[in-house]
Amino acid sequence: MADAVHLGSGKVRELYALDDERLLLVASDRISTFDVILPTEIPDKGRVLTGLAAFWFVRTRAITPNHLLAVRPDGRSTECRRLEMLPIECVVRGYLSGSGWKDYAKSGVVCGHRIPNGLRESDRLPEPIFTPATKAQSGHDENITGAQAAALVGAERLAEVERRSIELYRFAAAYALQRGIIIADTKFEFGVDRAARLVLGDEALTPDSSRFWPADQYAPGGPQPSYDKQYVRDYCEKIGWGKTYPGPELPPDVVAGTRRRYVEAFERLTGLPFDAYLADPSVVLK
Questions:
Q1: How deeply is 41 buried, as exposed, middle or buried, from its count of CB atoms within 10 A (0-12, 13-18, 19+)?
Q2: What would the DSSP string read from start to end of 96-142?
Q3: Which residues contact 112 (CB under 8 A, 6 or more apart)?
Q4: Which residue of 85, 109, 150, 255 has the fewest C-beta atoms within 10 A of its own C-beta?
Q5: Is the pTM value of this prediction over 0.90?
Q6: The pLDDT value given to residue 282
Q7: CA–CA separation, 70 and 137 (whole Å)
């Protein structure tokens, strides 16, 4: 990439510097599960993540500014403003699932929030809750308390982050439900620009950063079908892989099934044929 300097690699993305003001995020088709990048890629997964995040960035600007400047014609590269990223993950949970469900089952508390008794796995919470986490350099992110998060970013900044995160979640959850998708929970990342403004960065409201459930199959009381990489996790569990490097190759049916779920989430939420995005990524910005 002649116009960019490579800065680093994540599990899914490559990060480049374009100049002092702009970065380039390139979403690959890599997929990781249990914190191991698998040797098999999911075709077009990176384009789904890039296109869907851009779609949401455009539609949530009234709630918070974001880092998006442009989506490149390859459909997987985002030009964005440089930010100083906050050292926390901003998780909002609207339903009782994942680590939130495990904590609730043990103690009735989710990341410091006392939750009413008698709820089942995947039940909707009375109100969305903000549950910050650390950003792990390796391994899993770890849930932390509000006090711990305030020690990292400051109490005033944390209050602003919580307010915006919940407002973003409420907007997106209502929007998605009209299109047949429940957003059970999601993760946001914020940074600060040179004017000290809080700005939404990274990605937002994608199958990699959220739990998307088909609303017409929702049945609380256990795990739910999903549009994320749970399909891959289930396969890896079934074959008895030890969850350590190297990861297993994925068979063609698992690859195809995973791609189909990602693309269906994109099409339901955007109302656009995925082929239209591949032909002209700017369609998500309109």
A1: middle
A2: --HHHHHHHHHHSEETTEE--TTPPTTPEEEEEEE--EE--SSS---
A3: 131, 145, 146
A4: 109
A5: yes
A6: 97
A7: 28
